[in-house]
Amino acid sequence: MYQKLLLCSLCAAFPLLLSAAPEAAAGPQPQLNRKELDPSLFADRAAAETLLKERRELILKMHRTRMELIRKDPKLKRIHAQITALYRELALELDSKREMTLLSGDLRSLDAKIDSLQKK
């Protein structure tokens, strides 16, 4: 579970990390999380759908390549292990706080109600 949360947090933080990094000679890094990319907003919807599909596939390929590089490169693997350990520690500390315990209980209650609706 923590790995999924870590991945989500890293993906969410990636654009922030890019803005903090010095820009390469080729220019600024592309923005991965663009919410305004809806094919219906473009004049040529079919072309937009094709390009957006290509974009999604490329981002998925980037993600797979990152994961492969982390597995192969000892330095990246060590950094990833440190991040994972810190994230686990952060998650445990957050989950131990009263506010989070109450919110987690509320979420479990809602999930139980949703599950009971699905069974009917």
Detail the topology: elements first, then pairings.
Elements: H1 2-20, H2 45-72, H3 74-96, H4 98-119
Helix pairs in contact: 2-3
Structure, explained:
The protein has 120 residues and is mainly α. It has helices at 2-20, 45-72, 74-96, 98-119. Helix 2 crosses helix 3. The longest helix is centred in the middle third of the chain and has 28 residues, at 45-72. The mean pLDDT is 82.
Task: Summarize the model shown.
The protein is an all-alpha fold and 120 residues long. Helix content is 77%, strand content 0%.
Protein traits:
120 residues; mainly alpha; 4 helices
Poorly predicted sequence stretches spanning 5 or more consecutive residues: none
* Average residue-wise pLDDT: 82
Residue share in helix = over 70%
Shape, per Cα inertia axes? flat
Span from first to last CA?
28 Å
Order of helices and strands: HHHH
Number of helices: 4
